[in-house]
Amino acid sequence: MRAQKQGVLMFLCALVASGIVVSHGASEQSRGSTPAASSAPVYKPPLRGAPRGRVGAGTRGSGERDIFVLSVLAPDHTGLTVSEQPSLYWFISQATGLPVEVAIADPRTTQPLLERRLPSPVPPGVHPIKLADFGVRLVPGVTYRWSVTVIADPDRRARDLLAGGLIERVDHPARLRERLAQARAEEVPFLYAEAGLWYDALAAISELIDRAPGDTVLLNQRAALLGQVGLPKLGGEEGTRTPRF
User: Fold this and answer.
1) Cβ–Cβ contacts within 10 Å for residue 171, how many?
2) What is the spatial distance between Cα 161 and Cα 57, in angstroms, rounded to a whole number?
3) Model confidence over 63-91: pLDDT tens digits?
4) Could you tell me if 55 and 163 are in contact, meaning their C-beta atoms sit under 8 angstroms apart?
5) C-alpha dihedral sign at 21, 26, 31, 34
6) Nearest Cα residue to 69 out of 13, 148, 9
7) 216-227 vs 198-211: helix axis angle to the nearest 10?
8) Handedness of CA 136, 51, 148, 210 (dihedral sign)
9) Which superfamily does 59-227 belong to?
10) 163: exposed, middle or buried (C-beta count within 10 Å: 0-12, 13-18, 19+)?
11) Reading across the β-sheet that carries 87-92, which strands appear in turn?
12) Domain ranges of the chain
């Protein structure tokens, strides 16, 4: 009986020790150590009462042809970036031969900052809009609306399927530059997400996926990040497709 009690006591001690080790590991990770492969970036939205900005993410079909889901990969509030020329990501579930336009509106003028039609047909998957490709630059403190539009009937624009979001460029948070300079590539999305920089976090993890399209860990991390702002899982996507303009 005494041996049995001693065995139970040793088992409980082992559990306590294990708990201490786990807590210590979690504390170390929170201080900036390498994230676990199974973890995902945790997005912390800005606490600034930003207006709701995402629209769309709808489905459009015409009989059995051109049936798809269209969505911008943006939060439902104004997403932030520290980049002067960020990349904006959007998703379409099926290929379409319908005209697709991308645009960025500047609230300070009636002229669009960017308005471009994509080559047809547009393949399915995640697509970037790289502002550097167009010489477009964002000014700090301005909230821009960007959108992707599928034109179902050029003569009846009310039938357009539109998805859009908001973006604002801000200054680097304190110490972020230093932390990024010391981080490995796989840590960068975590740092941006923690700092509340949605577009930079999404771009960082999408660029990693571009380098390893079949990496399920990265794909799951991006899916988890999208889920945190209410975006659905991107069915069947393997990576990012760069459109030709």
Assistant:
1) 9
2) 9
3) 445 567 899 999 999 999 999 999 999 99
4) yes
5) positive
6) 148
7) 160
8) positive
9) Immunoglobulins (2.60.40.10)
10) buried
11) 59-62, 65-72, 87-92, 125-130
12) 59-227
